[in-house]
């Protein structure tokens, strides 16, 4: 150990005058300086509803950290490795190794230690610059959402993870710099590493044989809060490559050439071959994705909340009929829930106050969840044994970019050969991505979820083929799809999983499948009801009939015809869940359609006096639904004010603004700061109103007619031309 330290000191003296310390500090501070310094001299705009955040974590993490590790840090390693090695090349150090009082291994390893220490300094510089500049920004642009929370554990874990991630790359760059004299070759090796990672980003695939892929893996998951373990796959692979290239580099260095090191005689060739096979075996084992493992009986869920909202519990529901599965009380901003019930693999809805999160889960799964939320936003960090399934659900789509554009733009409506060629190519590529998919911790998709996604993928292609034929021709054989392609897609859905069996795309496919090509070209909806009613009683029949009845009710504009259709079909459905859903659907359509009576809502004005909506009878009432926590609402309010001024002389038009804030005082305080000429009201129990009319988001604009009936429940925004066109038709002098 003493000799190693002495050798490191000696090697350090050799490169002391190369300026590598200064380069490390400058490159480490480059992205923080470019990110912060210009912002010091311009006003900072933070959107309303932004979650509170630690200024240090915000500065260090995110996109900046990804670009720093992916490009800047790699560039420094390339430069430093080359400068360290070129010192020996210039001074003929290779030929003088025998004169040194230390072993060749100590000489080579000391060079690697110096390279690593310099790289660690570059990382430390990035962290320190961000911390200092974030503090400066905190005082230059003070804001209530900025928190001076210094999470030492998070900072140290993130720092350690970056440092471990680059060990293998540093080892490779030193090996290349020692092996090839001159800057250009080692720089070329590093450039190929960057290019290979960019290729991985484009193709969404990590190449396991690529030593630089640890940076690609880090790019996909820079936040340790989203990892089951902060030392994960990318770090383990980095350590593996570090060992491999330290061995290769040392023998190359000590034997003064590749041939002398590995191919000098038969014995060396045999040893090199054996070591290569052993190394390849270890690489295969390391890179193989970890299979999904069911760790427990039932489901376990724990977590933490970071919020100023009053939330007493989280609730778990099914996504199809909103049946409650369980609930967990929140105590000291933590919660814990478990069940021994054998729940099938499905997508379940987690409700945290008014915010929702969908999780793929089933019996045998555990979850550790962190939530940050306010009135407008929810950020979640998920750790789970089913992490890969969550990642795939959130990031992967069924169609590739080119095929997706072709569908959107209807590019090949007159070229079926090209359409089907592109569809087949895209299907193969989508399967490839699904088959090789692993999350950044190298967890593979569970077999049951992978089967579901493959089936769903096949259904989506089949549905798009049906849509293509509807747009073109059912009868012209020129537009018929290749038989082998259709057979392959159909083969994948012979045994639908439970998840697929209730998927909307699958149900639509089954409905289309009931119709012949001739049926498709005539009154398909009526024929479908006849064919569905001929099916034997089954849960699948209830699903299909419910799907078709729901869709037909939505398309029917006449309430009498809609109610008659509903009455004729509802009793042919046996499932209580589907019946209840359809009754609710019919009520929702009937109360929301144009001409339906709108409730006489009771508002409070800013004086605390009750005002009923019926006060404005005889006028078209233009209602702005908004809240003080809604940034888009506040952005559109000035335009709403302008439209009010524009139509203020028309006696039959009345603009009003209705706040949906839970806290009435926040609404009143906002009006004190920003008064308005438009009558301002607050609606108590706004959540019930929004649920009744399925209002999912605000701002929302409604028009109620002079008789208190719905004229338009989803009016265009006041900055749109359609808004003016509607009001111009209503105005009366």
UniProtKB/TrEMBL annotation:
Residues 592-732 form the Thioredoxin domain. Pfam families: ABC2_membrane_4, Thioredoxin_8. The keyword Ion transport does not apply. Its main location: other. SUPFAM superfamilies: Thioredoxin-like. This is Thiol-disulfide isomerase or thioredoxin. GO terms for cellular component: cell envelope. It comes from the Bacteria. It comes from Chryseobacterium arachidis.
């Amino acid at each position: 150990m003493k000799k190693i330290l002495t050798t490191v000191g000696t090697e350090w003296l050799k490169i002391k005058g190369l300026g590598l310390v200064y380069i490390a500090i400058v490159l480490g501070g480059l992205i923080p300086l470019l990110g912060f310094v210009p912002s010091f001299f311009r006003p900072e705009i933070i959107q309303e509803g932004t979650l509170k955040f630690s200024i240090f974590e915000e500065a260090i993490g995110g996109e900046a950290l990804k670009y720093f590790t992916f490009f800047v840090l790699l560039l420094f390693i390339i430069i430093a490795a080359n400068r360290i090695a070129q010192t020996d090349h210039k001074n003929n150090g290779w030929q003088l190794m025998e004169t040194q009082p230390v072993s060749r291994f100590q000489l080579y390893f000391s060079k690697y230690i110096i390279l690593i220490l310099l790289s660690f300094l570059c990382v430390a510089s990035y962290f320190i610059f961000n911390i200092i500049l974030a503090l400066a920004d905190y005082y230059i642009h003070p804001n209530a959402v900025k928190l001076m929370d210094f999470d030492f554990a998070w900072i140290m874990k993130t720092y350690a993870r970056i440092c471990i991630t680059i060990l293998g790359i540093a080892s490779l760059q030193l090996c290349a710099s020692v092996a090839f004299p001159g800057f250009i070759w080692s720089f070329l090796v590093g450039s190929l590493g960057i290019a290979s990672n960019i290729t991985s980003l484009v193709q969404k695939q990590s190449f396991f044989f690529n030593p630089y892929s640890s940076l690609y893996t880090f790019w996909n998951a820079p936040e340790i809060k989203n990892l089951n373990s902060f030392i994960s796959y990318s770090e383990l692979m980095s350590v593996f490559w570090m060992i491999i290239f330290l061995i290769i580099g040392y023998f190359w260095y000590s034997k003064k050439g590749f041939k002398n090191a590995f191919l000098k005689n038969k014995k060396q060739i045999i040893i090199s071959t054996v070591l290569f096979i052993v190394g390849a075996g270890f690489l295969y084992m390391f890179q193989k994705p970890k299979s999904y493992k069911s760790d427990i009986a039932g489901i376990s869920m724990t977590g933490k909340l970071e919020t100023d909202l009053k939330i007493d519990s989280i609730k778990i529901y099914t996504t199809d009929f909103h049946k409650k599965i369980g609930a967990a009380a929140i105590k000291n901003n933590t919660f814990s829930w478990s069940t021994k019930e054998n729940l099938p693999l499905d997508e379940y809805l987690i409700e945290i106050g008014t915010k929702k999160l969908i999780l793929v889960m089933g019996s045998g799964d555990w979850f550790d969840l962190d939530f940050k939320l306010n009135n407008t936003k929810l950020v979640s960090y998920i750790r789970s044994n089913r992490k890969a399934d969550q990642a795939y659900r959130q990031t992967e789509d069924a169609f590739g970019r080119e095929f997706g554009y072709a569908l959107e733009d209807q590019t090949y409506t007159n070229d079926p050969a090209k359409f089907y060629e592109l569809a087949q190519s895209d299907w193969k590529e989508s399967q490839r991505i699904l088959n090789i998919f692993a999350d950044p911790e190298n967890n593979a998709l569970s077999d049951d979820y992978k089967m579901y996604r493959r089936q769903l993928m096949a259904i989506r292609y089949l549905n798009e083929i049906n849509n293509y034929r509807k747009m073109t021709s059912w009868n012209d054989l020129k537009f018929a799809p290749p038989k082998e392609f259709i057979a392959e897609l159909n083969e994948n859905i012979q045994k639908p999983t439970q998840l697929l069996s209730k998927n909307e795309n699958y149900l639509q496919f089954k409905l289309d499948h009931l119709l012949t090509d001739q049926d498709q070209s005539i009154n398909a909806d009526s024929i479908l009801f006849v064919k569905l009613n001929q099916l034997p009683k089954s849960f699948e029949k209830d699903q299909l009939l419910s799907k078709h009845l729901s869709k037909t009710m939505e398309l029917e504009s006449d309430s009498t015809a809609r109610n008659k259709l509903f009455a004729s079909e509802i009793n042919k459905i046996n499932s209580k869940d589907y019946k209840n859903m359809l009754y609710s659907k019919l009520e929702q359509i009937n109360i929301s359609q144009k001409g339906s009576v709108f409730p006489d809502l009771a508002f409070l004005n800013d004086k605390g006096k009750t005002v009923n909506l019926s006060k404005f009878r005889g006028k078209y009432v233009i209602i702005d639904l908004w809240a003080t926590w809604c940034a888009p609402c506040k952005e559109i309010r000035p335009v709403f004010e302008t439209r009010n001024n524009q139509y203020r002389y028309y006696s039959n038009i009345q603009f009003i603004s209705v706040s949906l804030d839970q806290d009435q005082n926040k609404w009143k305080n906002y009006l004190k700061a920003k008064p308005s000429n438009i009558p301002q009201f607050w609606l108590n129990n706004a959540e019930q109103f929004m649920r009744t009319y399925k209002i999912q988001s605000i701002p929302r604009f409604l028009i109620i007619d002079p008789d208190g009936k719905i004229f338009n429940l989803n009016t265009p925004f006041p900055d749109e031309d359609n808004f003016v066109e509607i009001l111009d038709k209503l105005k009366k002098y």
